[in-house]
Amino acid sequence: MQFDDVVRIFVDTLHADGLPPMVGVISLSLSTVIERIERCAELGVELFQISLPSWGELTGRAMFAFFAETCGRFPELRFLHYNLPRARRVL
Prior knowledge:
Layout: H1 2-16, E1 22-25, H2 30-42, E2 47-50, H3 60-72, E3 78-81
Parallel strand pairs: 1-2, 2-3
């Protein structure tokens, strides 16, 4: 997959310089976000940039579920939320 190839090159390059890579994981699909986080973590990535899905404004309940399934699922990883105006909900 192109995503995996790009991440692998990025991670190898930064690790070679002793720097921690941060990978942005943005998708309309929560399952895709989770899968990409898992694959990146296997490559040694600990820092992630995420944003809410942009297909529509999430309700409060859906927003909390999104963060539980991303940040909450991976307590050993660190996340930065990118306030993407297309998500129609700026935090």
